Amino acid sequence: MRMNGTSTKLVPAAGLGAWTGLLPESAENHGWRMRLMPALLIFALWTVVGLFQAVPDMLDGFRWTETIGKFIDAWAWALLTPAILLIDRKLTSRLQNVVRIAVAHLGLSIPFSLAHTYLTGLILYPMPDIWWSPLRSTEFAIYFYLGGWGTYAAIVGVLQTFKYYNRFMGSQVELARVEKNLVESHLNALRLQLEPHFLFNTLNAISSELAANPVLAREMIEDLAALLRQSLDCQGSREITLAQELALLDHYLAIQKLRFGERIDICVEVDPATHSAMVPSMFLQPLVENAIRHGLEGRMSGGKVVVSAAQVGAALHIAVIDDGVGLPRQWTIETCAGLGIGVTRERLQTLYPEPGDHDFRVARREGGGTEVAIRIPLHRMGAEARGVES
Fold first, then answer.
1. What is the 3-state secondary structure (H, E, C) of the chain?
2. 3.20.110.10, 3.30.565.10, 3.40.50.150, 3.40.50.410: CATH of 213-389
3. Which residue has the higher pLDDT, 316 or 353?
4. Is the pLDDT score of 375 beyond 90?
């Protein structure tokens, strides 16, 4: 084609793509590249081995014959390495026993050492300056054979080391997965201990109001249904956000406020910045229930329960405080803790097993009542929140 005195040559699309690189690479070329990568890697590794062999001889002066001889010795092994890898893979799949594999490789070391000796000799033979070629001297043939036998043993040793390391790492991953499943099962079992206990106490409270005040009992049942619905939504989660945990607690507190009326004052003082912090699911409810049942329920004047949460450094501090009757004189957490305290303590130990990761204390207050103080690691839901935290 000619335009305004200038000729323009039409180039096929394939040729244009080859020159400009603008067209996508064909699947066939990509396949060839993937096949060449292992070969290039093997060649590069043996080149490095040849370099390490040649460097000591270079210290007293560079001689090209000695240097090229070391590289050719290594490159001969590069040519044999694919066959060694293939045979080792077949032996591993068939024998499945380290002793049998070792015996098989011991037998194979003879032909492979001979093959390396003759292959190296053939490559070196056209170079008359390299007089130590195994095809020129019987003594050097024995030297090359023994050196090749040691190299073959080293190759097999490295292969077995990598294989057993991979198996070990695979078994560690599988072990971690099994341990995680066991922890999940243990946490679910602990939670299942709490739920029947909580349901029995709540239903018992509702039944006591059913005859005297059916409207109040109906409202308590509605709050219980909402609490159970949200609890089922979180059942598969080891941890939920503090906001979700407070939403669950709100339904339980609504039941208690309907039941006790003005006798009990419940105050929730939580820093909004901690709402995205992850906490064990349904762990506040048994602590508040303990404060009400054992601290305030028996008092005609009732009392107050305060639930607080705040960030302190890299930890989340949570407290449940009441001004009730307090703990008995001989009370200890090891011997006298009820189901709610005991299960909560065990859940924290399971979720945060590292020393110093958490703290759980139950203590008497100076002015009367009980304080439950919890410290757990502060981590938030989502990568963005974790970035803010760090």
1. CEECCEECCCCCHHHHHHHHCCCCCCHHHHHHHHHHHHHHHHHHHHHHHHHHHHHHHHCCCCCHHHHHHHHHHHHHHHHHHHHHHHHHHHHHHHHCCHHHHHHHHHHHHHHHHHHHHHHHHHHHCCCCCCCCCCCCCHHHHHHHHHHHHHHHHHHHHHHHHHHHHHHHHHHHHHHHHHHHHHHHHHHHHHHHHHHHHHHHHHHHHHHHHHCCCHHHHHHHHHHHHHHHHHHHHCCCCCEEEHHHHHHHHHHHHHHHHHHHHHHEEEEEEECHHHCCEEEECCCHHHHHHHHHHHHHCCCCCCEEEEEEEEEECCEEEEEEEECCCCCCCCCCHHHHCCHHHHHHHHHHHHHCCCCCCCEEEEEECCCCCEEEEEEEECCECCHHHHHHHC
2. 3.30.565.10
3. 316
4. yes
